[in-house]
Write a structure and sequence with these properties.
Blueprint lengths: L2 H18 L7 H6 L1 H25 L7 H10 L5 H19 L6 H24 L4
Helix pairs in contact: 1-3, 1-6, 3-4, 3-5, 3-6, 4-5, 5-6
Length: 134
Amino acid sequence: MAPDVLLRKLNYLRQLLTDLAPYRDTTLDEVEAEHYKLERLLELLVMVASDILHHLLAERGKTAVSYKSAFQLAAQEGMIPAELSDRMQNAASMRNVLVHMYEDIDYEILHQSIPTALEDFAQFVAIFADDQAL
């Protein structure tokens, strides 16, 4: 991945995190009222982070077949910590529920996932911003 493309995607992740940050301490009622916005922010976070990994994994000759597998392979390749990978795989699973409507959306889970998403995706950005050599 060209360094300028990686930088652009990392900056986009930062913007998404900035947009999500006001909801860190929101109430469940506020989540329900703003659920479309929150769902889209979480969807985009997963998609952009996964896109970064798909490109970087391809450079290593690895192919991820899903959003979830991109995070799993990234941990196997030592690109991200295993614990972060596990949580991001959970975020990818939530993204699938949000996008494909496999089941009803549990707004309590969406509500509880906001602080975790803020921390995990900020950690992801920091890893790749600090180590452009990957």
